[in-house]
Every structure is written in structure tokens, then in C-alpha cells.
Amino acid sequence: MTTRTLLLVGTKKGAFILESDATRRDWSVRGPLCEGWPTHDLIVEPTSGAILAAAGSPWFGPAVWRSDDLGTTWSHSSAGLTYGDDGPAIKTVWSLAATPDGTLLAGVEPAGLFRSTDGGATWAHVEGLTNHPTRPTWGPGAGGLILHTIVPHPTDPMRTWVGISAVGVFETRDGGVSWEPRNVGVRAGFLPDPHPITGQCVHKFAMAAGEPDTLYQQNHCGVYRSDDGGATWIELTDNGLPSEFSFPLVTHPRDPDTAWVIPLNGADQGRYVPDGRPAVWRTHDRGATWIRADEGLPAEHAYLTILREAMARDTLDPVGVTFGTETGQLWHSADEGRSWGLVTDALPEIWAVESVVLDG
Amino acid sequence: MAVVLLPRSLLALFPGAERRHEIDGTTVEEVLVLLDARVPGIRDRLVESGPRLRPHINVYVDGERGDLVTEVGPTTTVHVIPAVSGG
Questions:
Q1: How is A72-99 classified by DSSP, letter by letter?
Q2: Cβ separation B48–A78 shorter than 8 A
Q3: Residue B19 within any structural domain of the chain
Q4: In this structure, is residue B48 part of a structural domain?
């Protein structure tokens, strides 16, 4: 059996697909794809193997792109991606996910959620989230009022979590009809009341392998873990991390105790890696301790910024971890984040990375 | 019938679509609805909620800037031109 590993990369100027084998040493590059549209997220539809891209053109508006031949040809649609003629115009699609019953979910700017049951050809507004009583209080983060993270429950299609900046985490347990904020214990240090019901600036969160009620979160104000499906969160920042501020967070595909983050120096200090020395930090004990790894990364004067969707891991053993930078470098580790190598160094500004393993 | 001329960057999104179309219609909006019947999805690329033309899409009707309600006649030429913007 031949293993193909793909990196789906979303950038400010289109999508790219990099391909290697199980060794993940040499990579070919294809792109720019999706007609150079700014691309915020890429996923593979589990039921079909199609690649889906969340994008928005400054000229032609938002769309979900779809390729059924691993990126050779593409179609696009925004049919139904609207709040109606009386609502605000949707600027871009920010995030995509598939629920266990095959439904696709798309998060957009301004923040809202849409669902598709036909592979992305048509979309319907999930009104329950937009109609949440807190909606009039929702305010944007620096990246806009965006629904950037969607975490479906792995087996229950009724349960899904979403992350909105700067609003926080919400969960539905009834397929999107009703939603509850899940932000207790998460600081909003930039507000007069640092513990509001909503208003937290979630940057990214992810589910632990095999533990649907265990969530890890990278926030504007710290790193957190929840052991109760987001009902309450425990802060992990002071367990050795150099900064509370970062964007991406990735969890291990098999070990619920392992996650990776890339701390930046601070929200108001440039938002690059501390001291210009990039490092990826990982925990193997649910955030109780953190290990710094910089082997192969620049030793100094590398003022890199890694955005919220720009880190991913594959499912091989050992796990491959990849991150992309705002300055177009793509770094890969084939040993679970212990050592790093440069894959390519001159892509456009990288906004999203997804890892895919194909067997056959 | 009005003549509608589409830009390259828009045609690139719809493989096989023609640059030049002859379409009956009394307003720009009506022309775009009829165009969408020939090229499904193309109206969504030009029109946002409101409905109104997307902010960086310009439509010229016989050389004058128009909008969705601009009247179109049988000898009208409609140019769809993306704004000079971006980076």
C-alpha cells in the first residue's frame, strides 16, 4: 500500500496543495488554486474525499470551493450563504467542518453558521445561533467578527461547538436549534469585567482524541482545558508557557493528553514569536507541563507569526505536525513536533494548513 | 437585446462561459437574473444582500456607471468591470 500525505494550505492569494509520501521528507507543490481567492480553511469531506475550501474574494464575495479530484478541477457555490436582503452582507467563509451524519457546516464573517446537506452546493442559515440573546452584544476581534472554529462531536450529530471572535465558545446539543455559551473560567482580560458570559476572545480550540468532553483552547488570554464539554475551563498558561497569547492549537490524533501550541510574544507587543526565536511547545500531560522544541527552527531574528488555522497534524505514527507563517514559510515535523524542517519558504501569507493521509 | 460584456477574472470562475451575451432585460438586475439562468451562480458573484452590487464590482451602462435599477434598452451595452483594488 502506498501512503500519500497532503498538506492543504490556504493563503491570502489562493490555495496550495503539497504532496509527499509517508516519510514526509520531499514535497511537491501545486497552486495557486481556487483562482487565487483568499482561503481561510480547507478540509476533506469524509464521505466523499472531496477537498473543500472556505474562501472570500474582495470582488466576488464568499464561496465554498469544492474539488472531487484532489485539486485538479474546482467548482464553487454560495447559494444560500446569506442573511437575507435585510441582513448584513457576508464577506467571506472562514471555517468548514463535517458532522458525523455528513452535514457540512460553514462559519462566516460576520459571524454566523450555515449548513449544507448536499456537499456544499446549497447552504441554509443556522438561525438558532444568530438569534442567541447575546447576539446584540457580539463585537469583533482584530480579525473581524468571525466564526472561525467548528468542532463537531465525533459520533453525535446533534452536538457541535463553535468559536467566535471576540465572543467565545458556544455549544448546541440539539442540532443547532439552541446554543449555550461555554466560557466559564476563561478570562477576558481586556474587558472591565474579565469574566463575562460572552466576550472572550477565543483564538482556536480542539477536541482531545477519544474524549469528546475534553477540549483544549488557545485564547487571546491564555491556554485552557475543559473536561466537561466546555462547561468550565481550567487555565494552563502558568504551567510553563512563555506567553498567554497565541493563535493555533492542535491536538494529537490518538493521545488525549497531547497538544501543541506556538506562543507569540503578546497581543500588544508585535504578535511574533518571543525574542524572534521560534519554538513549538507541546504537552503530554493535559497541559500540566509544557516542553519547548526548536530543533531545526531559526535560532534568532525570525519574527514569525502563526495564525489561528495555520497549524495541523496528520494521523501517521509518528504524527507529523505542520505550521505556516504569515510570511509564507511552511515548517514540518515528522517526529511529533520534536524537530523541524522547512518545506517551502515563499508562499503568500499562510492562513490555513490541513494535513491529509491517503492510503491506496 | 442588450449586449453584456464580462471580465476575464469572472469568466475564470465559470469554465466555458462566454465573454459576450445578448440578453433581454429592462434593468441591470433583470439582465443579471437572466444571465444567471445561462451561467448558474454568476449573479451571486456580482450581487450581495440588499440586493446591491458588490462593493468592488462596477457596472457601466452605455459608458455610464450604473447600479441594479439602471434601465437597460435593446441597444444598450453593459460592461461588468471589477474595481481597481486589492493587494
A1: SS-EEE-TT--S-TTSPPP-EEEEEEE-
A2: no
A3: yes
A4: yes
Residue of A212, A146, A219, A161 whose CA lies nearest to A185: A219
Q: Are B10 and B32 in contact (CB under 8 A)?
A: no
Coil, helix or strand at residue A130 = helix
Three-state SS letters, B11-75: HCCCCCCCCEEEECCCEHHHHHHHHHHHCCCHHHHHEECCCEECCCEEEEECCEEECCCCECCCC
**Is B87 domain-assigned?**
no
- A60 and B45 in contact by Cβ < 8 A? yes
All three cell numbers of A160, joined, read: 457541535
Q: pTM to 2 decimals? A: 0.97
Are B49 and A83 a contacting pair at CB < 8 A? yes
Domain for residue B9, yes or no? yes
Show the cell assigned to A82: 446569506
Buried b (16+ CB within 10 A) or exposed e, A237-255: beeebbbbbbbbbbbbbee
Q: How many domains does chain B have?
A: 1
Q: Is the pLDDT of residue A142 over 90?
A: no
Q: Over 60: is that where the pLDDT of B18 sits?
A: yes
B16 in A contact zone (CB under 8 Å): no
- Residues making up chain B, counted from first to last: 87
B56/A59 CB distance under 8 A? yes
Torsion angle, alpha carbons of A81, B25, A75, B84, to 10: -80
Determine the Cα–Cα distance for residues A71 and A30; give it in Å rounded to an integer.
9
pLDDT mean over A116-130? 98
Per-residue b/e over A190-209, b at no fewer than 16 CB within 10 Å?
eeeeeebebbbbbbbbbbbb
CA distance B2 to chain A (A): 23
Domain encompassing residue B75: 2-82
Report the DSSP beta bridge partners of residue A330.
A324, A344
3-state SS class at A35: helix
Give residue B84's pLDDT.
Answer: 83
B3 CA to chain A: closest CA distance, Å?
21
**Mean of all residue pLDDT scores within chain A:** 97
Band (A141; pLDDT cuts 50, 70, 90)? confident
pLDDT value of position A55: 98
- Name residue, grid cell 469528546: A212
First and final CA of chain A: distance in angstroms? Answer: 5
Are the beta carbons of B9 and A85 separated by less than 8 Å? Answer: no
Looking up residue B50, the CATH number of its domain turns out to be 3.10.20.30
Closest chain A CA to residue B45: A60
